[in-house]
Specification:
The protein has 183 residues and is an alpha+beta fold. It has 3 helices and 8 strands. Helix 1 runs antiparallel to helix 3.
């Protein structure tokens, strides 16, 4: 086999490998953020809530109380969804704010009473298809909001394919150098 054929085969294998590598994608579903997301002390606060990624035309925004003794920051998404459901009993239905969603985004300003353990702000549509929540905590630094952090990472399969391509290229070069010496 000639050097050109080996290089062509190696490149073809690398390209086929890249075709099957998964790619990182954006998070599915709507998201919600609150500003400020942290207060220095408990009490009444005016919070701007921003939503994005919505497919419905309107939704409702309301506070979800956190019982004393519960650390809201340690709750996972499933626990928050269960806690802040209509059957959970912690939604403040008297403080319901309707929001209109245009092009998947909305912004609303609400005044809420934030206790020492913090409060969740929950948004959902009337049919229950889409929902999201944001935590407003008390006594933590607000120096970095969630939207300031980049979504980073690398797919393991891409690293494996790149490593295999480099190893294959090394084997090809080694094999070709031995052949050329023997001539």
């Amino acid at each position: 086999m000639t050097k050109t054929k080996l290089i062509f085969i190696g490149l073809a294998l690398a390209l086929v490998g890249f075709l099957f590598a998964g790619s990182a994608s954006a998070q599915d579903g709507p998201s919600l953020s609150a500003s400020p997301s942290s207060l220095a002390e408990p009490g009444e606060a005016t919070v701007t809530v921003t939503g994005s990624g919505w497919t419905v035309g309107s939704a409702f925004l309301l506070p979800c109380n956190i019982p004393e003794g519960v650390n809201a920051a340690e709750l996972d998404d499933a626990a928050v969804a269960n806690h802040c459901s209509q059957t959970g009993g912690f939604l403040d239905m008297g403080n319901l704010t309707p929001v209109t969603i245009a092009d998947g985004d909305f912004e609303a300003t609400v005044t809420v009473n934030v206790p020492a353990q913090g409060i969740f702000l929950v948004t959902g549509d009337a049919t229950g298809q889409e929902s999201a929540f944001a935590l407003v905590s008390v006594g933590t630094d607000d120096m970095m909001d969630d939207d300031m952090l980049a979504e980073t990472g690398v797919e393991t399969s891409v690293l494996v394919i790149i490593g295999a391509g480099i190893a294959l290229a090394g084997v090809m070069v080694f094999g070709l150098s031995r052949r050329l010496r023997s001539l």
